[in-house]
Amino acid sequence: MAPFIPALLVVDMQYDFVHGSLAVPNASEIIPPINELLACPFVAKIASKDFHPPDHISFAITHDKPVFSNITIYPPGETHTDRGLEQVLWPVHCVASTPGSEFVEGLAQEALTAVVIKGTDQGIEMYSAFRDPWHIAHSALPKMLEDLKITDVFIVGLAGDYCVKSTAFDAVEFGYKTWVVRDAVRSVYDTGTEWRDMEQKGIRLVDCDDVKRLVV
């Protein structure tokens, strides 16, 4: 029988994404189910945090442009190369060591075994809890999972169409069997295309009851 060594990844359950400047619709609804999963016997229970400098490249104010407008960003030191990516410009959020960057009240953070931070470089966007889209900067997450010999990654949190999706895609790229827990995720937009995209990538979509049966 193949080994089953599961980790739970709790993505960006921070004040600004639940109640603050970039609140995801109905985000508070997923705190109880996430806490239920944090009580399950995962080998690792790791949370990610956006932890931005105040002039982060993803902030509209950094570019003196309207919130939710779009620009093209490039890897640091490059301009107008074929590695440009479309970037939504967000309200200022999750600035390092401010109240908005803290875990949301009510999250059972005492159950976490580790916390990784991301988005710390002023010039690099980093939705994924693993790495940036150009693979320049990596968080501590890849080594943590490798050291623990994790086989399966279960992902919950915010937001389904951005950081959860990017984290799930990278989990697949790093070779993990990847599960996203739909009733413990909320998205910025209600198009639902993120679920189709994840399924096409081979990611398994499950609900909390499924996970509780698997992780016992």
Secondary structure: elements and pairs:
Blueprint: E1 6-11, H1 15-18, H2 31-38, E2 44-50, H3 60-63, E3 70-73, E4 85-88, E5 114-118, H4 141-147, E6 152-158, H5 160-173, E7 177-186, H6 193-200, E8 204-206, H7 208-214
Parallel strand pairs: 1-2, 1-6, 2-5, 6-7, 7-8
Antiparallel strand pairs: 3-4
Helix pairs in contact: 5-6
Structure description:
The radius of gyration is 17 Å and the shape is globular. With 216 residues, it is of the alpha/beta class. The strands form 2 sheets. Strands 5-2-1-6-7-8 form a 6-stranded parallel beta sheet, sandwiched between helices. The chain has a two-stranded antiparallel sheet with strand order 3-4. α5 (160-173) runs parallel beside α6 (193-200). The chain starts with 5 loop residues before the first strand and ends with a helix. β6 (152-158), α5 and β7 form a beta-alpha-beta unit. Helices cover 24% and strands 21% of the residues. The protein has helices at 15-18, 31-38, 60-63, 141-147, 160-173, 193-200, 208-214, and strands at residues 6-11, 44-50, 70-73, 85-88, 114-118, 152-158, 177-186, 204-206.
Unreliable parts: none
Distance between the termini: 17 Å
Major sheet:
6 strands, parallel
Q: Look at the helices and sheets and give the structural class.
A: alpha/beta
Average pLDDT value? 96
The helix/strand order is: EHHEHEEEHEHEHEH
> What integer value in Å does the Rg equal?
17 Å
Tally the helices.
7
- Helix fraction bin: 10-25%
* Number of DSSP-assigned strands: 8
Percent of residues in beta strands: 15-25%
Shape assignment: globular
* Strand order in space, largest sheet: 5-2-1-6-7-8
